[in-house]
Design brief:
Layout (H helix, E strand, L loop, with lengths): L3 E10 L3 E8 H23 L4 H26 L1 H6 L7 H5 L4 H18 L4 H9 L2 H15 L13 E2 L3 H7 L6 E2 L2 H22 L6 H17 L10 E2 L4 E2 H34 L1
Antiparallel strand pairs: 1-2, 3-4, 5-6
């Protein structure tokens, strides 16, 4: 794979000294993912009659909370390592890492809702506007993972197994070299676009109450992530019960039934309210 789009090697720069001058593929694709999601979200907010500038302010705080939350999640998952090496808390590795994605998403949701409430904006309507671009942004970001060698899969004897040969990728992420691996990031990228995105577009079209689209996303993505984790080979994500389940799978086991139950409850309550209105007329 290609951890760097442009790699000029090490250069000695004034006032800085010797540095590695390169443009990481992961960083470029994550920036692209944010740009696509941001533009789509603002378009959805405008279509729902919400001021795009106000919606952008809410999204900014949600994004900031998500970034910090993801890194905090990683620290908690690898707490023994960070306690043994506290300097890693201010390392470039942690700065560049997305952290635990589920924790980032949930922390981002919290920051998003709080910012919307403080600005007296329709919080769940805005969350729905953000939920639709999410799987596309996640798909683009996972392509960055594939290129960088992070979130790599376990050994794969199927025809589509991928082989990493980049010493740089191995040094940065620990991905095994010369061994066919499951393209786990690609599985998740395809799942987001082929499974989760159509679900959200359908639910948005038939939405009865605000919040439904987000709950559909949480349900669909939770199932997808739980299944994809079985193909992962890295241990950084945190393993539990003798390596049976990962941190993200445990979170999925909590989120999916909660989101699905809330989704069904909202739909039924909206239907009963509609029946009462029709009965009253």
């Amino acid at each position: 794979m290609f951890p760097y789009l442009v790699d000029l090697g090490f250069r000695t720069l004034p006032l800085v000294g010797k540095v590695h001058v390169a443009i990481p593929t992961y960083g470029v694709l994550v920036a692209l993912a944010i740009l696509v999601a941001w533009t789509w979200y603002l378009g959805n907010a405008r279509a729902d009659g919400i001021d795009p500038d106000a919606a952008a302010g809410v999204a900014f705080w949600g994004l900031l909370a998500g970034i910090l939350g993801g890194k905090l999640g990683l620290v908690l998952v690898e707490l023994p390592r960070f306690l043994a090496h506290p300097r890693d808390l201010v390392s470039l590795e942690l700065l560049q890492s997305a952290g635990v994605v589920w924790v980032a998403l949930l922390a981002g949701l919290g920051g998003f809702l709080l910012a919307a409430r403080l600005r007296r904006l329709p919080a769940w309507q805005l969350v729905d506007a953000a939920a639709v671009p999410l799987p596309v942004a996640q798909a683009i970001g996972r392509l960055g993972c594939l290129a960088a060698g992070c979130c790599f899969g376990g050994r794969c004897d199927l025809p589509w197994g991928i082989v990493y040969r980049s010493a740089t990728a191995h040094e940065r992420t620990g991905v095994p070299l010369g061994v066919p691996l499951h393209p786990a990031p690609l599985y998740e990228a395809l799942g987001n676009v082929l499974l989760v995105l159509p679900l959200l577009l359908l639910v948005r079209r038939r939405r009865r109450v605000p919040g439904e689209v987000f709950l559909a996303w949480a349900t669909g993505y939770g199932v997808l992530r739980f299944l994809v984790e079985f193909t992962r080979g890295d241990r950084v994500r945190g393993l539990w019960f003798g390596g049976t389940l990962s941190t993200s799978q445990l979170i999925s086991l909590a989120v999916v039934p909660a989101a699905a139950t809330a989704w069904v409850f909202l739909r039924r309550r909206a239907r009963r309210a509609g029946e009462r209105r029709e009965g009253g007329t």
